[in-house]
Amino acid sequence: QVQLVESGGGLVQAGGSLMLSCAASGRTFSAYAMGWFRQAPGKEREFVARVKWSAGTTDYADSVKGRFTISRDNAKNTVYLQMNSLKAEDTAVYYCAAGGYWSWFNYEYDYWGQGTQVTVSS
After folding, report:
1. For the residues of 11-50, what is the DSSP string, one character each?
2. What is the pLDDT of residue 4?
């Protein structure tokens, strides 16, 4: 089992920045990749960014490319999502996930955090 706890959400004005953190514990060695997903009201959960635990390889959804940065600190078992130039359409609950595949798809991630709300006011 892998336990994930997100933090760092909140309310920010458009154009502002937030950094989300995801602290992992348990059998973290079983996680090949970490992902951030988000879900806005009335919409399906969508991929935001992913990172490989060991190699640090990253990948982003087109909607956040150039504005968001995913990173990881292996020593702290923590993954971060730095979000800059935030837009109203970034408003959503953001979830951290861990899985054994390098995937964009939420169903291929085995472990999930509880989510953290990000609200961007325009």
Report:
1. EEETT--EEEEEEEEESGGG-SEEEEEEE-TTS--EEEEE
2. 96
